[in-house]
Model the fold of this input.
Amino acid sequence: MAGRTTVIERKIGLDGTLSDFVCQRLRLEPGKRAVLRYVVDRERPVAGGELVLPAGTVTIAHYWSDRPYNVYHWVRPAGGTIAYYANVVDRTSIEESLVSYEDLAVDVLITPSGLATVLDEEELPPDLSPSRRAVVARALEALTSGPLRLAREVEAESRPYLAA
Done:
């Protein structure tokens, strides 16, 4: 992990808005894969308020250039998984100093027991292109057909970074 210790995570909304977050670089393979760390600085409601992340929640964020989603593994400040939050995305780019993706609005909340809840489908614009709708469908199929398998994969990949 030579080079920078921080990386910008850039979320590009369907409307073109940019949201940048400074994250700690844990693992980065340009063009392929990244794992970043971010600590929530204040209490944050997510999933329409169904879940509240306490201040100090550690996010271990997993990105793949060949998957139509990324996954945030949320861990309590004292340890223990809160949930996994998958963003349905397109055009993930993984570079030395920047991990960016186009957020397609739909998300999937996965509990530690493997229950998957699809969120925000109503936010998809009616004029979303057929190719983008296909990306959403492919992501939802992957995320909802094996949520416990994905949770275990992410948990195992996060473990070395949580022990530090």
